[in-house]
Amino acid sequence: MTVLLAVLLGLLILVLLALRQSLLVILLLVSAFIHLAWGRGHLEDILEDMWIGIDKELILAIPMFLLCGEVMTRGSSVKRLMRIMAALTRPLPGGLAVACVLSCAVFASISGSSVVTMLAVGTVMVPSMLAAGYDRRFTLGAVMAGGTLGIIIPPSIPLLIYGFITQTSVTDLFLAGVGPGLLLALVLAVYAVWANRHMAAEPWDVAEILTSLRSGIWAALMPVILLGGIYTGWFSATEAATVALAYALLVETLIHRELRRPALYALLLDTARLCGVLLPLIAVALGIGIFLAEYQLASALVGRLQGWIISPWSFLLLVNVLLLVVGCVMGTIEAIFIFAPLLAPMAQAYGVDPVLFGLIMILNLEIGYLTPPVGLNLIVAMSAFKQPFGLLCRAAVPFILLMMGCLVLVVWQPWIAMGLVQR
């Protein structure tokens, strides 16, 4: 009976997605379904579970990290960071392409968002790389793939939301994101050198390096302070968000002095609007998670599935295929809200570490940013860079293959993600 109801629940989700219902409507109907099918049938329990779930201090980290990313994006930090990377990578063939990837990696550790990272770096790098003679398809693919680093390198907003919904340590998730994030950045950088090996290299300009470091040192220190504080235990994820926001405001308003009061007011409003959309979704998703834990539905479903899926490796293979397909038709945040409350406890029942599973899930969904028909980076790039959708899809193919290779490597060698996590 449990499996039949789970199938009906899956069909309900598919129908709602086909009808283009909002994510909040989908989550509320899913919550109502499971309360009626497995619970006491009292729909007022949904509100109680939502309140219990969202009544957490960690919720404060979400608006602060979002606001921090907006402050650094609308200030001058991005251009200063890219100038540093361009100066340091000049001797490499395709040095500007490597600078593009590294700029995305560094800025990802500030913004926590894929689209924001892609736009912030791409609006500067795409014209520069095209003017320097780089292939158009490679240039677009590199910017789109580099942007995806924003959801795996901490402080990642999707990792933060995943940790909050599944009650997994956000600090551990952030630490676990460092290894895969660096692996992805390294692989993309190496491919950038290989793909542009015919490009002429230039000697280092020591004066330019010193000037760029002097100009951008305050922006470059942000990830060092943030990750260093979390890794050493000086502050928690919520405290890290506070420190990051305070530092970003200090740098952009008092040191760089390029973020004026009107711009600050506008980004406060934008962040408030985004939080107004996110927080109700988080509350409903947390309520679903509380219900699933209370009635042990995930354990019951695993018990039914173990006749077909007998090992953790089989489970991970199935989940990876599922999430790669989900990433093609659904955004990362939507997929986390819908699938994380169910898949995370199932993974734990199969003996998969909850932190590792969180990273695997985000890595899968990260690839979804580049896969049609609803790959968000493809859609945004089409509008931002005025390029045909078909060209962008072809540009993404080699980078999708590289990222899938990294995903396989992380699943096969979990220490890449778990090396910094204290277990």
Describe the structure.
By secondary structure, this protein is mainly alpha-helical. It has one domain (2-418). The chain is 78% helix and 0% strand. The protein has helices at 2-18, 23-38, 44-54, 61-74, 77-88, 95-111, 114-131, 136-148, 157-166, 170-195, 206-232, 237-255, 261-295, 297-305, 312-329, 332-349, 354-367, 376-384, 389-412, 415-418. The mean pLDDT is 80.
List keywords for this structure.
mainly alpha, 20 helices, 423 residues, single chain, globular
Question: How would you summarize what this structure contains?
Answer:
With 423 residues, this protein is mainly α.
Shape, please? globular
Query: Which H/E pattern describes the elements?
Result: HHHHHHHHHHHHHHHHHHHH
Q: Compute the number of strand runs.
A: 0
Distance between the termini: 37 Å
Average pLDDT over all residues: 80
**Cα-based radius of gyration, to the nearest Å:** 22 Å
> What is the count of structural domains?
1
Structure annotation, total helices: 20
Main beta sheet: none
Q: β content, as a range?
A: under 5%
* Helix-and-strand structural type: mainly alpha
| Unreliable stretches covering 5 or more consecutive residues | none
- Helix percent reads over 70%
